[in-house]
Amino acid sequence: MSETHPVRAVLFDLDGTLADSEEQTDLAIAIVMARYGAPDFSLPHTETRGRTWEHVADTIRARTGLDIPRPTLVAELLASWNDATADVKSVPGAPEAVRAAARRLKLGVVSSSPRSVIDTFLDRLGIADCVAPEARIGGDAMRRSKPHPEGFLFGARVLGVKPAETLVFEDSHAGLLAARAAGMRSVFITCCAADIAGNTPLATATTVDYRALPLQFWDELADGKLELAGRSFP
Q1: Residue pLDDT, tens place only, 45-80
Q2: How many CB atoms lie within 10 A of CB 76?
Q3: Could you tell me the pTM of the whole model?
Q4: Catalytic positions, please?
Q5: What are the domain boundaries of the chain?
């Protein structure tokens, strides 16, 4: 697949990619587990970043033997995380980048968070008008979550584009694997990411945050003039 093939659509992950909300996941887990007598419990980033709360709950129950119904644990984790992200900030440059991209490209958000969280965060970041409601794909709408490519492939179908015409922005191991499995190019956002060295080879290109992207980035993508393979935007 030519890396200079024009891009027609961009699919953004949400947590850690548009919103700086990954650390709150670890905090929510710690708060909930403290209620059940395990204040020092934590999970590796591969089991939390880019994962649904259902996956997190299942992993907690498997590792601890905690006898709590899955829906109950999911609800507690999500409630704690919602509290922790009440004043969430954007990843640097994200709102401006989304607006610039929307002038030339179709946009969607594909997240492991529920659709309600996508709606809330887009409103808070002031970019809800840039992403059509039908292009907001939450983890609660998919049968298989990242690293399975179902969400990204569904997003491309909603936007009426082919995978090869779609660029994914991601910050997680699971998300980058999903983009690759979908046959899509990807940009790894590293400012909020874990295991940067290990995840970089999974992405087509990397950038610290959106402020590091060239001024004509979105136009050059749309015109098929930007070579992404192996690029790093510091």
Answers
A1: 999 999 999 999 999 999 999 999 999 999 999 999
A2: 19
A3: 0.92
A4: 13, 15
A5: 9-21+88-233, 23-84
